[in-house]
Structure formats: structure tokens, C-alpha cells
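Appendix B. Raw example, untouched.
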Amino acid sequence: MSRGITKIEIIIVIFLVVIIIAADIFAAQYLGKKSRDINILSDISQMRSSLEAYLMINNHYPVAGEVVSLNDSYLGTEKLCVEGFKRLGDICTKTLLKPVPNAYLKEGNIYSYKSTDSDLNYQIQFTLNTNFVKFGLTKGVNCATNTTITSAPCF
């Protein structure tokens, strides 16, 4: 004899569906943040490689005694040439990085650069939204230098 579906069974099914939908939304948000952070680390890697090319040509890193924002048209740090950072429209002898990457600039992501130790070292400060345990990087402000990337502010 079939008695059909009871109200409690319907409530349990609805509850389970809500839990699954909530888990999917949380996973999608987390994966979006992780994807953004992977792009940021890729940007940092590109900048570090270009700065090493600059060092090989000039025997020092680009001069910036004060902290400057990279990919800033007002400051003229949109691209890296053998002569240093320049605006996109400026002429270079040789371009090393055009443009300075920052896919999330419009969302408020800023890479800050400073040369140190008589321009023989540099620091690039950036922010992550998630942890990268494998690399020892945590959510928040991190610092890339010519030798390492650390989970601490540069400045």
C-alpha cells in the first residue's frame, strides 16, 4: 500500500537542495578569488623576469627611491623599457614589458614598486585574496623582491 510523500520528506529534500546550492555558490566565489590570485602571481612573475632583463642590461634595477604605483599613466609607469619605466606612448630604445601587467587595476588592485640598496634590489608589494600554503603566501599584503616572495608587507 503506497501512502505517497509525507511533508517531512519534502522538507528534508528542500533542505538538502538548499545546502547543495549554498555549497556551490561558496565554491564558485572561492574559485573566482583563487583564479584572480593566480593571475596576480603571474603578473608578479612577468614583472620579476622583465626586471631581471633590465638588470642584465643596466647593472641595476629601475630607479624609484620612493614607492610608486606600477601601470600608472600619471606617474609614467605603464611599461618598462631599457631606459626605465615610461608611459605607453613614450618611445623606447627597447621595450622589456608592455604594458606592465595588472588585469585587476580597475578593481583597485595596485602593484607598488621601490628600488633599494642603491638600485641593486627592488620590492613589489601586492595583495592576495586567498592563501597559497604551498608557497608560504597568505591572504593580504605580500612582497616580491629580486630574491624571493614573502608573506609580509614591503613598506
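End of appendix B.
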